[in-house]
Amino acid sequence: MRTRLGGTYKLIIGLGISGLMGWLVVRGFEWSMVRESFSDVSVPLVLLSVLVFLIAGYLRAIRWRFLFVNDRIPVLRLFIVQNEGLGLNNVLPIRIASEPTQFAVLTMRDRIKPSTAIATLGMERVMDVVASTIILTIALFLVPQMSSFRNYVWAAIGLTVLSIAVVRFLAWGSGGLPLFRRIRFLTAFSESVRELERHKTRLAASLAVTVGYWLLTGTSAWLIATAVDLGISPFSATVIIMGTMFFATAVPAAPGALGTFEFAMVYVLGFFGVAREDSFGFALLTHAVFFLPPTIIAAIFLPREGLELMQRLKGRFALRGAPIGSAPAAD
Questions:
Q1: What is the pTM of this model?
Q2: Phi, psi of 122 (to 5 degrees)
Q3: How many structural domains comprise the chain?
Q4: Among 90-99, 123-132, 270-279, whose mean pLDDT is lowest?
Q5: Closest CA to 242 of 72, 99, 89, 56
Q6: Does residue 40 have a pLDDT over 80?
Q7: Close Cβ partners of 58 (under 8 Å, ≥ 6 residues apart)
Q8: Which partner from 44, 110, 170, 314 sits 20 to 30 angstroms from 17, CA to CA?
């Protein structure tokens, strides 16, 4: 009962934050200018941006594949599993579904050891932090508007150092700490991290591919900006979409980060001298391009994972106070 109330409170808070940020974005708008920003949209460029976004997603799956040392799992399978988690995350009222879904599919359907699945999922997050910090640090010198975000870049650098320290602690703990030896799963997990750390070439390749993923994602956003005649560079578009996506996934919000995504993008674009009405049109279009492909992929493939998996997923989310209704079947 208490967990369900907690889930309800989180949902109310998320809807409230989305509503507030949505209102802050659109207040005082000249809606004729918003309509005008959509009037001459280049449809071929938008479609090309969708293709580039999907290629970026496949690159992300390649990044994940590098982190599986002893398991042979196809890149295409990882691409589908990733999008199943992302797509389900897009439609749930409480956005905690991505990694749990990917973990459940990998362990129940692909027979990956739980410790390995968690280690690779965790290392993916570390790669994202390190790669984004590299890009943001370079942007600090190449993009004049980034001077306004200097403190955020320093925070990202601090988070990178902390993430690497945690990985080192886990790898060291598997061989040296009594606590790790007493808890079987913790031992297996830390040994998986240690195994990953031994393969420096794989980690370096995974990091390089992660940087490529973010640059391709930024290219997709830049193509949309070009389609609506928004004057920003490809590198600026990369920085903008990175900041927007990190904010939208970190802040409680309505399903699909509706409101928070638009708020973050309009806010950041303001530092680039883009009018709010033009920014809002670009934000809506970018949100659709980045939101729909994973949701559609999840709608196609997630039900095929099997009724047993869906029942277990339902039980896990119910325990977290976020019961799954009919949404997974539609995904």
A1: 0.79
A2: -65, -40
A3: 1
A4: 90-99
A5: 56
A6: no
A7: 75, 79
A8: 314
Average pLDDT, the chain: 78
What pLDDT does residue 34 have?
60
Q: Which residues contact 82 (CB under 8 A, 6 or more apart)?
A: 57, 60, 61, 64, 102
Q: Compute the distance between CA of residue 173 and CA of residue 176 in angstroms, rounded to an integer.
A: 5
Question: Which range, of 17-26, 250-259, 279-288, averages the lowest pLDDT?
Answer: 17-26
Helix, strand, or coil (residue 325)? coil
pLDDT of 5 over the 80 cut: no
Q: Which domain holds residue 39?
A: 2-330
Report helix angle 234-250 to 260-270, nearest 10: 140
CB proximity list for 222: less than 8 A, separation 6 or greater:
232, 233, 234, 237, 238
Largest CA distance in the chain: 66
Torsion of Cα atoms, 107 then 112 then 115 then 120, to 10°:
-100
Please report where in the chains the tokens 């969708």 appear, as a residue: 50
Mean pLDDT across the stretch 218-234? 91
